[in-house]
């Protein structure tokens, strides 16, 4: 257990989730997943309210992602390449995310939360390529909702075993990302099929 995180929770409570996750998404070093799992554990013990912990985590995540989107939109790639090293955006991380973004686009914003080193730069890239804010928000906020609920929820469900869960996730994070991607695509496909079915039915009902 990272004593610093425990001490921060003792002193500041829910605000640790908000400020810590906001700063993490501006690419400053902060263990977001560890913090959310621990917050879930604290809700298991009754120290925190699990739903409030989720709301603070979700708020910090979405605001942080939104800030990075507008930095990318306004400043562009030259700014990120020049100053990225000051917020841990290494050339290797940037190159990797460029390639992923060219292949997967906005879906990477959604599943990037579960890929180590990727979630910190997807907001920047969405802004840099000029992704419409409404589209970006749909994927970014949807992914944040799932990510925060999952980690706070796992901390609550597994209670004292939360650290074991963290170690398992660290070793199998790519499998988790693939599982999330498959689930997201399946949900999207079902919704698209249902929408098409409704349109077809409405067309058939028209005289």
From TrEMBL:
Pfam families per the UniProt record, alphabetical: VTT_dom
Ranges annotated as spanning the membrane: 12-32, 53-72, 104-126, 138-159, 171-190
Key words of the record: Membrane, Transmembrane, Transmembrane helix
Family: Belongs to the DedA family.
Organism: Cohnella phaseoli
Protein name: Membrane protein DedA with SNARE-associated domain
Gene Ontology CC entries for this record: plasma membrane
Protein origin, superkingdom: Bacteria
